[in-house]
Amino acid sequence: MFPPKRPTLFPKRYLYSGCASPPRAPKSALPHLSLLADKCISMTQLKQIHAQMIVTSRISDHFAASRLLSFCALSDSGDINYAIKLFNITQDPNIFMWNILIRALANSPNPSRAVFLYIQMRRQGVCPNNHTFPFLLKGCCSSCLPESCMQVHTHVLKFGLELDLHVVNGLVRGYCVSSHLSSARRLFDEFSERDLSIWTTMITGYAQNFCAIEALVLFDRMLVEGFEPNGSTVASVLSACARSGCLELGERIHAFMLERGVQMGVILGTALVHMYAKNGAISMATKLFDSMPERNIATWNAMLCGLASHGHAEEVLALFRKLEKEDLVPNDVTFVGVLSACCHAGLIDVGYKIFNSMKEVYGIEPKIEHYGCMVDLLGRGGKLVEAEELIKRMAWKADVVILGALLAACKNQGNIEIAERVVKDILALEPHNHMVHVVLSNMFAEAGRWQDVWRLRKVMKVGNLKKTPGWSLVDGDK
DNA sequence: CTAGGGTTAG
């Protein structure tokens, strides 16, 4: 008979009877299945290939299974829950499969799961390799566990991977994110095979920890050592210039970009707008902003917040109205800018209206920063009782920043009654924060309540008094 | 056998 009937790979009864694994199909029988998984563009296709692999027993081959896992876990059209299920039914997954899932979890909305998976992997006695740590560190950095980077570092040493460029880069970033800048710098300095990425990581670390000068000094050294910055490096340095008020250096970098023809996309455009606006070069920022062909919400926020920090409240509100007509959705950062502008200009009613619209119109739950703006706004307007009420209504415990804003307002208004309550709350959070005693003491002194001033002095231990900066400023200390 | 890092707004 021609063409010959294709032989079945194994008897049909194996397929559905749930009996022990069927005889393994010869690998050559279906050589393209795992390659097909690489070309997959949807979960529907992937499930078909998965089914074929089960039917043909190919799934027990770790290489084939890992092609499926890669797509589910990493592709934009993948499905991480499917990846987890696939992983869970795999017998003795190999290190590649563990790594893929750790990576996927690190990029997921709940990145601490990457750390938990690593712990599970170690419990099963599987050894990590050079690919494991960059993914794991990413998970640590973007979860609420940045401190765990230090523990990861001990594992890196244990497995002898401290000379891998990607691993070191991940560790440097981890230490930067958890604000251990000196540890990050030590690793950076001790590692001799540096490339542009690790320089960028260290510079970004400084910039994001508000150590702009260090960032700029390091950038300078990078240039001296002959590295050519790329878009990522430039964006970071511009951010440092914006935060530290280095307008001149920012301008020089802008000139450098134009000279070298550095591709100016939305990220670099935003970084430039931010740098100019934050440094008060509003007309330059506006000119750039208007000329950008593509703007995202970060671009608008850079412009709004830059204007707000220089007190241009009218312009902020005008720009915000313009934003409402665009196809972009404002986010929480947008409202920090707009509300702080209202605060500077003392626009209580407008601010209140916008604050309420956050949730009602835009569905954005106000964060503690937004409450902070409102407390500041109400406090400046003399509405201390309302400000205190607002703090009580918050879903979270008030932090020192927000209580400090209220205390400052109390001081300006001379409201000792509320100030005493606020000081008590701050001391509950930070028992050694003697500055609040100083503020309160000053308020008592202004009101001529000398007995209270002396009572406060007794509350504070004399030994701590000497260490408290600002004590000598107390008016009543005569 | 397969894979990896750094970038914008607060």
TrEMBL record:
Gene3D superfamilies in the cross-refs: Tetratricopeptide repeat domain
Residue ranges of the PPR repeats are: 94-128, 195-229, 230-264, 296-330
The protein's matches in InterPro entries, at most eight in alphabetical order, are given as: E_motif, PPR_At4g14850-like_plant, PPR_rpt, TPR-like_helical_dom_sf
Which positions are tagged coiled coil? Answer: none
Keyword match Repeat: yes
The highest taxon in the source lineage is Eukaryota
- Give the UniProt keywords, A-Z: Repeat
Q: Which NCBIfam families match?
A: PPR (TIGR00756)
PANTHER family recorded: PENTATRICOPEPTIDE REPEAT-CONTAINING PROTEIN, REPEAT-CONTAINING PROTEIN, PUTATIVE-RELATED
Q: What is this protein called?
A: Pentacotripeptide-repeat region of PRORP domain-containing protein
Q: What's the source species for this entry?
A: Hevea brasiliensis (Para rubber tree)
> Taxonomic lineage of this organism?
Eukaryota, Viridiplantae, Streptophyta, Embryophyta, Tracheophyta
